[in-house]
Amino acid sequence: MCWYYCPKRKETCLLLAFVKTMSRYCLTNLILSFGWLSIIRRKPMSVLETAFEKRNKKQNKVETIKALKLPMEVHVKLEAIAAAGYDALDKEDSAYFLKCFGLFDKGEDFMLRVRIPIGQLSHRQAVRIGEVAKKYGDDYIDLTTRMQIELRYLKIENIAKVLQELQEVGLSTFQTGVDNPRNIVADPLEGLAFDNIIDVTPIVKELQSLVIENTEWISALPRKFNTGILGSLSNSCNIFGHDCCFALANKEGEFGFNVYLGARVGIQSKDANVFVTIQEVPSFFMALLETFKTFGYRDNRNKNRLHFLLQDVGVEAFVQEVKNRAGETFNTAGQTLVQSQSIALGANKVLQRNGKYAHKIIIPSGIFSGTDLIDLADRAKSFGSGDLRLTYDQNIYVVNLDKSALDAFESTTIFSKYNQYNNLYFNDMIACAGTKTCSFGVIPNKPDAIEMANFLKSEVAIENGMVRMNWSACPKGCGVHGIADIGFEGCKAKDDEGNKVDGVHIFMGGKITRTALEAKLLHKTLPITEAKYHVKYLLEVYAEFKQRGETFETFENRYFSANYSYQALAFYTKINYVLNDKLGLNTKLKLDKTPKTFKKENLEIFDFGLKLFKLLTNEKRYVAVEDFEPVLVQARHIKRNEVSTLNPNVPAKLSEVIYMMTDNDKKTRAAVFSELLMALKAL
């Protein structure tokens, strides 16, 4: 089978393989009668048509499965599927169709993803989810970065009953997997926070009504489609990290949204140069989905997110097609108003517009239980409205708490249980599922994130700060490590004995501001047991030099990136790990508050070398240094093992590294940190 663009029907269509057996005459008549102008054309192709035809000469295996039946054919048979048991489950249903309704086969049990628009849960809904988790899912709940809940360990015989019980309280699981418009995220404090300029809740409800549980849009897209809409000043939902992003903006005095398009793992969205009013959001959104449905690639699933189409045709051409389909011109972009720093400045107790309070409950790594969800919902009902708001960072707000009831709420058992995690290292931590529940996971991940946060809490005390640490268990990046202050991607590493162990790549410097940036790789393939020390040394610098209330994101931009190369920072954490945690020398290389090396790697190497020589020998390497060059009036010639000779606790290899860093001759002096880092691996 092949996919072709049909201009007459304005959509992609499937040309069945049986037409190949027809005569040339019959095929030509079929083509003409159905308007297959992608094959026989009367006018030049547009750039989107050209890109589509180039990429859709073959279809991927999932598209072949999708052609077998309609998703609703499976949905209406859920009771029969449940009754027949796991062994009778059709392969295509397991591989694809059940995922259209949030059901993911995990090998004799299922994970169920529950759609919760903007993470807003009523007391009744929260209690029902908790009851379902206890009754059918081992009392286990995962909170996700799309403000949803995942139930696990569901047996096939119970799946129809679970969906029915959730539906009774207005909860849907439709289109929470595979090639569908996914849950729309926004500020968890929509309509409540002082910085919430536009309450987008009505907009999200309208968008959902257009596509969710609408058979025209179930499994209609080439790939998943994530949407975020932010009507607040603080970026509380990673607004630039979705396929479609509506970011709060102002155009000539009117509040609305600037549009950004095409984010994916490792890449932030692009400015579409479009401003839409509140009223224009639905028409733009639907035209956008139609355009992606029509021209989105259906060959290579690794390269068929919206990002790749934009990459080939350009944002301008794509947006013009959206405008044509919407029948509107739309304004050019206004001024984006989103900022990265939380308006609450790290506080977990927030005063609402209505005089009531929202209290953020920190759920480490998003690991929760049905029992605790019921308890929290009941306490929310006792002291407030009973409403809960799930957050993008896998936590929960209890909202609309009466001021007079705050002390009583904070005295409850459920509050005390999770209040121990109310600190800088847990507050803004994200961790996706790891090896325990995800087949793609390379490391356990969630336990690793919790262990590191506890370690850092005990080692580096920081007040009035904020650091976002995100963990992904594999390169797919579901933990959005790429936009973190400090991000971790699971991998396999080798310990000192050469054994394969759980490891991480460490990233730093992700930004979620209006100039959203991906984090840069700092260290590759570190054992997790070592990685925590590298992070510790970075955070010690943050604690020492940060300004009052300064977030790590702002600090990284002001201090780390402005003063040091990332290669220098990688060496800084590595040498301190070697000196203190490997050799036990109890001495640290320090960074300067105002360094004069100007991010030049050769100067940084020489500067660090001089400091290490002095630290480990208590002597100066040179009598005098001027402009990062030794004054050789009376040159001090040393041997490669000089530092080891002066300090027997220093291994010869480390002495040689310091020699390379401070060599008299610039031509033979180490010029890049990479060779030094390789040498340190031998220690």
Automatic annotation (TrEMBL):
GO molecular function: 4 iron, 4 sulfur cluster binding; ferredoxin-nitrite reductase activity; heme binding; metal ion binding
A Pfam family this chain is assigned to: NIR_SIR
Boundaries of every Nitrite/Sulfite reductase ferredoxin-like domain copy: 107-169, 352-409
UniProt-listed Enzyme Commission number(s): 1.7.7.1
Domain Nitrite/sulphite reductase 4Fe-4S residues, every copy: 178-328, 431-549
Gene3D superfamilies, A to Z: 3.90.480.20, Sulfite Reductase Hemoprotein, domain 1 (3.30.413.10)
Top enzyme category: oxidoreductase
Keywords: 4Fe-4S, Heme, Iron, Iron-sulfur, Metal-binding, Oxidoreductase
Similarity comment text for this entry: Belongs to the nitrite and sulfite reductase 4Fe-4S domain family.
Descriptive protein name: Ferredoxin--nitrite reductase (EC)
